[in-house]
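Chapter review. Work through the record for Trehalose-6-phosphate synthase before attempting the end-of-chapter questions.
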Amino acid sequence: MLGYLRLQLRFLLPLAAAMVVAAYVALPLIEKLTLRWFTRDISARAALVANALHDSTIDALASRDARRLVLLFDRTAQDERVFGIGLCGSDGGVFARSNAFPATLSCADAKQTAGLGDPRITLPGGAVLISRHPLAATENSEIGLEPTPELILLHDLSFIERRSLDTRRYLIAFLATLGFVVAIITMLVAQISWRGWIAGARALLRGDVVPVGPLAVRPELAPLAEELRGRLRQLEDEYRRARGPETGWTPERLRGLLHSELRGDEIIVVSNREPYIHDRDQQGVRVRRPASGLVTAIEPVMRACSGTWIAHGSGTADRDMVDLDDRVSVPPDHPMYSLRRIWLTPEEEQGYYYGFANEGLWPLCHVAHVRPVFRESDWEAYRAVNQRFADAVVEEARTEDPVVLVQDYHLALVPALVREKLPQATILTFWHIPWPNPESFGICPWRREILLGLLGSTILGFHTKFHCKNFLETVDRFIEARIEHEHSVVAVAERETFIESYPISIEWPHPTEGEWASPADCRHAVIGRLGFPEHAIIGLGVDRFDYTKGIVERLNAVERMLEKHPNLRGRFVFVQVASPTRSTLDEYRAFQQQVERIASRINARFGSGCYQPVVLLAEHHDHGQLIELYRAADICVVTSLHDGMNLVCKEFVASRDDEQGVLVLSRFAGAAREMHEALIVNPYHVEETADAIYRAARMSSGEQRERMISLRHTVRDFNVFRWAGRMLSDAARWRLRARVEERVRKHGLPEFDGR
Ligand code: G6P
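C-alpha cells for Trehalose-6-phosphate synthase:
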C-alpha cells in the first residue's frame, strides 16, 4: 500500500509543482493585461463624460456660477466609476470641485499626473486615475480665457482592483480544478499503463504466449525481455550450482513439487517394461514384478505422482486384466495410478526389443566386449513400435502440455515423435544405461536418427556427468547442432535440450520396512533353506542374467579367493541370484551356460559333502525374497563390467538397518561415484576382486558399521524422490524459460547470445 502511494505521488508531485509555477507566471501577467484594458476603457469614458459636461460647464463658467458647477459635478460623480470632478480656471486654481475631489490636489499636480504614462495617484479612498480635458469655445459662448480652463476627472480604480481580485480567485480556482482533473486523468492513465506493463512483465516471466489483447507483450518490454533471457539463464545456472546435495526428499515433497512447480499437471511415464506383469499358471493369474532397475526406480515415483504409465503388456494374462481402453489400475492391491498396456506382435517384439534394442543398442552402450548387431528389419520394427508408443502418449495426454517421462534406450525416437504432435509438452527422457564415446556410438548406422529422436526432449538425463559429456561429444561429431557446453544445452533448429546428470536411486524408506524379519531370522531362514553350515560367511550377487553384470568375473574371483585362502573352504558360500532375461537371444543363452559351467567347476573344486561354495538361483525372486537374502548376507558383490548406475548395491544398503554387511562394488558401475565406503574393485582384475572379497569376509563388525552408516546416509539422502524431484523442478524452470524465449522470438527480437 505504501509503495502504491509512493508511486502515485511520483505522478502527482511534479504535476502540483507545474501548476504552482503556472499560477505564479500567469497571475501578474493577467493583472497587467486587465489594468491596460480598463485604463483604455476609462480614457474612452472620460472623453464621453467630459463631452457631456462641456456645454453646461462653459455656460456656468460664463456666468461665474461656481455653485451650479458644483451641483453639476456632484451629480455626474454619482457614477460609480467617477470619483471626483474639478475645474481648473485660467488662473491655475481650482474654480469648482465636486465633493469628493480632494482639496489638497492642486490643478498643477493634477495636470502633471494626467500627462504621465501611468496617470494614477493614491488617495485615502483608494487609487484614482486622472484625466484632463481642456474646454473649447462653442457657437453660443466664447470662453475668451487664457489659458483655457480644463476639466479634471478623477476616475475610481477600486472597481478594477475588485475585479482583478475576482479574476485572480477565478483563475486560481480554475487552475486548481484543472490540476485536479489532469492529476486524476494522469493517475488513471498511469495506473492502466502500469498495470498493463506489470501484467505484460509478469506474463513474460511466466512465459504465457499471448500475441494480442491486453496481456500481450508490450513492444516497450522487448529490450527488457532480451536482458531477461540472459539473466534467467544465469540465475538458473547459479541456482543449480548453489543447490548442492539437497536432502529430505519424500513422496509428499515430490507431490508438493508437482503441484506447485508443474501446476499439478498429469504425469505420463512411457517405458518398454511394465511395472506389474499378469501371468497365468496352473493356480490362475499371478502378478509379477519384473527384475529391472528401471521399474525399481520409477514405480515409487508413480505411486507418489499418480498419472499414467504406458508400457508393453508382456504378461500371458495381461490382456485379460485391462479395460476397454487397455488400462488397468495398479498396484493391484492398492491402486494408485493407471497402467496403459501396448500390445506388440511377436515379430514386433523380436525386431524392436530383442533385435534393435538388445542386440544393437544394449551392447553398443555397454562396453562389455559383445559386438552390437544392427539389422535393417530390426530398425524398421524399432521405428514402428516407437511410433506406437508416441501415439499412445498423445492419446493419453489430457492437455497440450503434459509432463512426459520417457524411459530408456528402447524408446529413443519417442521424444521427437511426441514433440511433433504436442509441441508444448515437457518431455523428460532418462537414459538408464551408459552413453559410450563418439567412436563407439558411431558404429550405429542410425546414429543421426537416434540423436535427433532424443533431442526432441526438453531434458535428457543420464546417471553421470561422464555420460553427459560422451553424449555432447557424440552430438558434436554426428549432427548439426549448437552446443553450449557451459550450460549443457544442445539446440537443433532452435529447439533446445538440456543435458544433465541425475543419479538414479531407490525408494527410502521402503514401505514394507516395518514388516521385515530381523537379520538373524533372515540368516537362519536362508541357512536352513540352502543347507549352509551354521557359521557360513554368505556372499551374495543379485542380477539379471546379463553379460554386462560381470557374473563370470565375480565367480572367477570367488574361485581365486578360495584358492588363496583354504581356511575359508567349507565356510564361505556365494549365492548368485540370476533372473532369466532376454533368453531368446543366443548371446544370453550362451552366457547363462558359461556361468553354470563356472559354478559347477568351482563346486567341483572346493565342494565336499553337502558343502557347495556356489549356489546359482537362476529364477525370478520377488522383493520380499531379495530382502531376506540381503539381510542374511555378510557381503554383497556387484561387479558390473559397465553399468549406468546399478540399484542392487543401493537395495542391499537400504535393507541393512542393522548396519552390518560389506559392499564390494565395481568401479565401472555409476554407483561407485557415490558409494565411496564400498570396497571398490576392477572386476577385470581377478586378484584384486578376490582380495576385496576376502577383506570383506574378515572385516570387523566395527568397520562394517562405520562404512554401512555412511553408505546408508548416502542412499537415504540421494533417494529416488530426489532424483525425480530434481528432474521435475529442472523441467519446471526449463519450461518457464522456454516460454519466455518463445515470446521473445515471437516479437521478432534478434537472437540473444549474451549468455
Ligand atoms: C536394467 C537397466 C535398464 C533396462 C532394464 C531392461 O534395469 O538398468 O536400463 O531398461 O534393465 O531390462 P529388461 O528386462 O526390461 O530388458
